Amino acid sequence: MSRLLLVDDDPKLREGIHAGVVARGYECDTAEDVAEADARLDTATAYDLVLLDITLPDGSGWDVLERLRARGDETPVIFLTARHAPDDRVRGLRLGADDYVIKPFEFEELVARIEAVLRRHRPPLVYVIGDVRLDLTARRAWRGDLEVELSKREFDLVAALIEAGGEVLSRSALLERVWDMRVDPGTNVVDVVVSRVRKKLDVSGTHSIRTVVGEGYCVRAERVRA
Amino acid sequence: MTDQGWTLRRRTAVQFTAVVTVYLLVVGVGMSLAYRMILASELDEEVTEQLDELRPSFAAGAGGPDEFERLVAPTGREGAETPMAWKAHVLATGEAWGPYGSPRLTKHFSTPGPGLGETVRVEGVLRRRRAAFAPGIEVDVVLDGTDWIERGRIADALIAGIVVLGSLLSLVAGRVFGRRIASLVKRVAAEVEAARGPAAETAVEIPGAPDEIRAVAESVTESLRGAKHEVERARMLAAGLAHDLRAPVQALLTSTEVALMERSGDERTRSMLESHLDELRVLGRTIDNLVAFGAPSVHGTEETFVRFDLARELEPRLRSEEDEAARRGVFVDVLRSGDLELVGDPTLLVLAARNLVGNAIAWSPAGGQVQIGLRGDAESVVVTVEDEGPGVPEGQRERIFEPFVRGDAAPGRRAGYGLGLAIVAAAAERHGGSVGVGDAEEGGAAFELRVPRARS
């Protein structure tokens, strides 16, 4: 369960984002100005990520970020800026922010950025199937020493099967987990993507994805230290 | 300008030549008439002079008819410049000497002559005078000025020659003149054309042009500046409105998304919310496009270029497109390869890519696949978007990138506002790249947006 700190002075936006991220399963504290943000960050509560507005009533988000980094606190920070200026982008990243979102943004974009930043800060999650190695955190795959370029959905599919821990997933379960589709439009896209993954990963005889006739697919992977 | 039409150059040349020729003709005829008048009055003088020349010789000699005949005989010979006929009247005796001279002239003595000391003109070229010659002797003279007047003809020919030569010269001068005017006007047109460009300073400068041409250029510039200002105002207004609309639409989008996330409510409410979300997203993208279209960054007057990774910027922002695809049963996949870092305007490029993806999803049948390719090669980063929709007919493949050209509506959707693909084209142009559409392998449309890694 990741814990977020949201610093923004706009109560409507704060409320909306708070409700959204909580619905997505995050814990979320909020702060409305620099003083409250500093106070929350100074306590023993460890945050996994800070969403930081730049323009605050009693100061600037830059200062909060600077003090945080000066203390040696490497908590990832995504700053929210209403300004379009490329200077903000550069300044924020130089001060050690991990990403930025330009207001107004779509909520889904914010969630995607939160997930991406959290993933980058998580330790690598590496699985091995035969001579194939997959890092679910960095979303990269290798066959031997050679990196394999998997498309977004190809990787999502393998990752979903790995995360199922060797259990069989039906086509409709895969449709929902990989493509977020609750209704099968009646195509064989799942089979097509499975065969594309096999073509890329099973070059030297590895059986990455196994077919369970009449049920679906499964992967037997072994977690290893990175 | 073609050589076939009634061009400014030709018109100027012809008019110039015609005016010069008419002028030369009038002057020529006038000069000819004046010269003839001068010749005629000189001829009047000539009679008197001839008389004055002979009078002293006669007075010095013996006098009498023989002496008179001897003196006047040379003047009467045919072939003289002005042949003369003479007749003398001795007043005391009423005796007459002569007539001497050619019968052609002497025949005139049969008519009554002018009074003493008078000269009359006879048949135009003849002069008849009666004058005192010696004491008690008066003479009657007829002088033939035919050859004299002939000199007038030579002058006429000369003048005619000058007129012809002059109008030929004016033809040449007219052509040169016409070409100069035409080239000035062409320069005005070229300058005005150049000043129409969005980046150029709106000031038409034509060094060395005459005041009138400069005045024309200035007034054209003035109205151009006015029109440009109006267009700029309209664009700013549209962008400003769009900007103001963005915040409320944003709030609606977020609250609808959050409401759907809570997974509460019955199926009917959910599907209504989902359709709201769909509409709001279309509205949101249209607003984004309007803002981008009005933003100075599209038109290249603001420095917004930074170094960034296209996949890192684009992928989080494709979430709502992917959501929409999931609801419509369209399979979206992204394959990236190579180095995707480039120097450019991230907002503009992400919007361009989202427009391509949004279009592809809208045109896809349920169960169709949309393949997004992000590929980095040595010089460029290439975004390809392929779908399994109906594709773009050959004849429309350039037109669809023009602003406000509305394509057909995708199935079950309203036609767009003609801005989406125009933004893609503007983004390509702004980055010195290119965009095009062809056929995908599966028969749908295949768009390719190519952006150089760094502006050259």
Topology:
The complex is a heterodimer of chains A (226) and B (456).
Chain A: E1 3-7, H1 11-23, E2 27-31, H2 34-42, E3 49-53, E4 55-56, E5 59-60, H3 61-70, E6 77-81, H4 86-94, E7 99-102, H5 107-121, E8 126-129, E9 132-135, E10 140-143, E11 146-148, H6 152-163, H7 171-179, H8 189-201, E12 210-212, E13 216-218, E14 222-224
Parallel strand pairs in A: 1-2, 1-3, 3-6, 6-7
Antiparallel strand pairs in A: 4-5, 8-9, 8-14, 9-10, 10-11, 12-13
Helix pairs in contact in A: 2-3, 6-7, 6-8
Chain B: H1 8-60, H2 64-76, E1 84-90, E2 96-100, H3 103-106, E3 118-122, E4 126-134, E5 137-144, H4 146-196, H5 211-261, H6 267-294, E6 306-309, H7 310-317, H8 319-328, E7 331-337, E8 341-344, H9 346-363, E9 369-376, E10 380-386, H10 420-430, E11 434-439, E12 445-452
Parallel strand pairs in B: 7-9
Antiparallel strand pairs in B: 1-2, 1-5, 3-4, 4-5, 6-8, 9-10, 10-12, 11-12
Helix pairs in contact in B: 1-4, 4-5, 5-6, 7-9, 8-9, 9-10
Supply database-style keywords.
heterodimer; A: 226 residues; alpha/beta; five-stranded parallel sheet; five-stranded antiparallel sheet; 8 helices; 40% helix; B: 456 residues; alpha+beta; 10 helices
What report would you give on this structure?
The complex is a heterodimer of chains A (226) and B (456). Chain A contains 8 helices and 14 strands. Chain A has 226 residues and is an alpha/beta fold. Chain A has a 5-stranded parallel sheet, sandwiched between helices. In chain A, helix 6 (152-163) packs across helix 7. The mean pLDDT of chain A is 89. Chain B is 54% helix and 17% strand. The longest helix of chain B has 53 residues, at 8-60. Chain B starts with 7 loop residues before the first helix and ends with a strand. The chains are: A alpha/beta (226), B alpha+beta (456).
Helix fraction of chain B, binned, reads 40-55%
Specify Rg of chain B, calculated over alpha carbons: 50 Å
**Number of DSSP strands of chain A?**
14
Spell out the helices and strands of chain B N to C: HHEEHEEEHHHEHHEEHEEHEE
Give the termini separation of chain B.
36 Å
Q: Give the overall silhouette of chain B.
A: rod-shaped
Structural class of chain A: alpha/beta
The percent range for helix content of chain A is: 25-40%
Oligomer: heterodimer
Could you give a short account of the major beta sheet of chain A? 5 strands, parallel
The gyration radius over C-alpha positions of chain A equals 21 Å
Determine the number of helices of chain B (DSSP H or I, runs of at least 4 residues): 10
Q: Residue ranges of chain B: pLDDT <50 for 5 or more in a row? A: none
In percent terms, what proportion of residues of chain B is strand?
15-25%
Q: Give the neighbour order of strands across the main sheet of chain A.
A: 2-1-3-6-7
**Separation, N- and C-terminal Cα atoms of chain A:** 22 Å
Q: What integer is the average pLDDT of chain A? A: 89
Number of strands of chain B: 12
